[in-house]
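Whiteboard transcription, Tuesday session. T.W. wrote the structure tokens on the left side:
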């Protein structure tokens, strides 16, 4: 939440800072601002609203200078307003700070700084940082920042500049992400790599309580006591093109359509014939053979991938698997220990609750395996072992390709662990790999059907909107699934509510009679996942029960299914035939598209839905 960028070099900082913010806007979009060190002092421009508004206003501002920092905000302390927008300035206007995170002891710090005569201009927690740096400033911005951070409790990634030291940029982090980009005659700071990909792929990942001092030609990382820390540089494998819309109207649509390619990439990378390998996984085979249960911990869409993982892993490994949302797991004294493999799943690798869950599990003696997309992220680094999804940058707030990539890794993990633990034979592994590949081909085929300008899913979204307006906004959604596709019902509902703002709940279809069926009259629209499976007939009965009570049903069925139509369902979405075990990978695609077209139909901001941010780095 919140994105920060810093630049020091020979180029004009303003353009680079704003360009970086545009690429980080998925992290928050309540306000945006930047500070550039100019010959006559620091110039700050900030605006309430999106980066585009800031960009517009910069046309008049004419900012000249090669050092600066910028910020796009997801509000925590203080309403979204110009005053609360970052950067924040010291009383004398000579130091500027941008911050991502939460300073937990800011009330106490603020009170004592006010007593000492500091004047606060905002309601943010961040402002204490800049006043503390000012308080300790004796001619060295790095030392002053270190002293300030020693007093601060909470999470932070910061960038600091000062007109006293025009060619210097300071960065520091604790529990919020920050990468250092190494250029030629220029250096960068950013919350996330896509912000700087166009300029450099050489990065240093800062660790907690590390502080970096950058000039255009030098990089020095120390701890908070000033002791130098040798750091490795890494190369980012993503390219700038991947972080662009490439002709699609929205990142979300692009990312939905990228899925077959992402899954193909995962298979190509991880498979040698039917042998699965995870090169970067540091947990030994002997350790993986020993555990007696698996706990999966994640949030949001990653949690739904993990929930599908429960079905996948239990079916193939026959060990108990339980799944928990990170925010619950971390506080309930989870019963995990040496015989538990804890799998944490996170696209960003920075989700605060998941990171805390990981630490809780490690403290209790469990081995933690992370499934992450972002290289070098906190979760990836702190876990005992990591498997990267390599799905490329996911920019839309609504997660799509990361979800199917996470599930893909869980399928491969099931095969890998199954063989290791001698519960899957080589022949069975080969069969599973073939079925997996067929599913990816089916996904490609399915998406091909929706490449046309007018497609059935878009038509159904239109039909719902007409209904909704005609019935005075009464429609809402229930998503029903069973067995391995039950988590997809949860995911379909989440996708719809987060970008269309329409009430939607996911249920296991068998639970309807235990309460939710009372909701059925002509108002709810029910999305029923009814592809061919061992629970198909049960699902058909559930649909019948809904139709008998006047509900409107959109059924997701296997190609050529006429049975469901006979139930009088209102709308049908067909998907190609695939093996039931792999069907979640395919079934989620129409659910994603439906949410997308609904948001488009209502004219909402699809890639940046209200109140949300891509990476939730606060509790
Ligand atoms: O980066 P993570 O995978 O840890 O993020 C977890 C959730 O915040 C995320 O999946 C969220 O639910 C998405 N907006 C859903 O589309």
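and on the right, the sequence the group agreed on:
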């Amino acid at each position: 939440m919140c994105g920060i960028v810093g630049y020091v070099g020979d180029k004009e900082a303003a353009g680079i800072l704003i360009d970086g913010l545009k690429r980080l806007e998925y992290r928050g979009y309540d306000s945006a601002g930047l500070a550039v060190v100019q010959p006559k002092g620091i110039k700050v421009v900030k605006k309430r609203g999106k980066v585009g508004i800031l960009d517009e206003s910069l046309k008049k501002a004419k900012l000249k200078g090669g050092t600066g920092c910028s910020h796009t905000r997801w509000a925590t302390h203080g309403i979204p307003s110009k005053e609360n927008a970052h950067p924040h300035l010291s009383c004398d206007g000579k130091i500027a700070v941008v911050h991502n995170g939460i300073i937990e002891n800011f009330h106490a710090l603020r009170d004592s700084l006010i007593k000492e005569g500091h004047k606060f201009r905002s309601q943010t927690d961040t402002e204490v940082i800049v006043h503390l740096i000012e308080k300790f400033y004796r001619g060295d911005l790095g030392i002053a920042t270190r002293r300030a951070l020693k007093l601060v409790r909470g999470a932070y990634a910061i960038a600091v500049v000062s007109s006293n030291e025009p060619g210097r940029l300071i960065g520091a982090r604790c529990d919020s992400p920050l990468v250092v980009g190494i250029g030629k005659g220029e250096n960068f700071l950013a919350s996330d790599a896509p912000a700087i990909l166009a300029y450099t792929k050489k990065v240093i990942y800062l660790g907690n309580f590390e502080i970096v001092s950058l000039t255009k030609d030098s990089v020095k990382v120390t701890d908070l006591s000033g002791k130098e820390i040798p750091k490795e540089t890494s190369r980012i494998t993503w390219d700038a093109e991947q972080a662009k819309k490439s002709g699609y109207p929205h990142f979300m649509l692009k990312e939905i359509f990228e899925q077959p390619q992402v899954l193909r990439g995962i298979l190509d990378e991880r498979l040698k014939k039917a042998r699965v390998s995870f090169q970067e996984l540091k947990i030994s085979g002997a350790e993986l053979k020993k555990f007696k249960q698996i706990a999966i911990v994640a949030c949001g869409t990653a949690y739904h991938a993990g929930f599908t993982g429960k079905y996948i892993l239990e079916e193939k490994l026959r060990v108990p698997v339980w799944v928990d949302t990170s925010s619950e797991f971390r506080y309930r004294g989870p019963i995990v220990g040496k015989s538990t493999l804890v799998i944490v799943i996170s696209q960003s690798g920075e989700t605060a609750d998941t990171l805390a869950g990981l630490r809780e599990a490690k403290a209790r003696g469990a081995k933690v395996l992370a499934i992450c997309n972002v290289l070098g992220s906190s979760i990836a680094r702190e876990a005992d072992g990591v498997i990267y999804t390599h799905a490329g940058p996911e920019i839309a707030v609504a997660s799509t390709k990361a979800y199917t990539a996470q599930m893909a890794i869980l399928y491969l993990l099931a095969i890998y662990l199954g063989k290791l633990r001698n519960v899957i034979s080589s022949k069975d592994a080969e069969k599973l790999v073939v079925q997996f590949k067929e599913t990816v081909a089916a996904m490609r085929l399915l998406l091909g059907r929706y490449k046309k300008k007018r497609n059935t899913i878009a038509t159904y979204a239109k039909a719902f909107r007409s209904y909704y307006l005609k019935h005075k906004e009464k429609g809402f959604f229930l998503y029903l699934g069973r067995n391995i596709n039950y988590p997809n019902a949860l995911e379909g509902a989440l996708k719809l509510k987060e970008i269309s703002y329409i009430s939607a709940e996911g249920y296991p279809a068998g639970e309807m009679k235990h309460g939710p069926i009372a909701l059925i009259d002509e108002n709810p629209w029910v999305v029923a996942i009814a592809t061919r499976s061992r629970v198909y007939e049960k699902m058909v009965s559930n649909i019948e029960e809904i139709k008998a009570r006047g509900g409107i049903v959109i059924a997701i069925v296997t190609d050529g299914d006429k049975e469901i139509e006979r139930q009088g369902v209102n709308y049908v979405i067909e998907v190609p035939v695939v093996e039931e075990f792999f069907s979640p990978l395919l079934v989620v695609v129409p659910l994603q598209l439906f949410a997308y077209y609904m948001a488009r139909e209502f004219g909402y901001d699809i890639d940046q839905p209200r109140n949300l941010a891509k990476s939730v780095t606060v509790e």
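Someone added at the bottom: The chain has three domains: 3-239, 251-448, 456-601.
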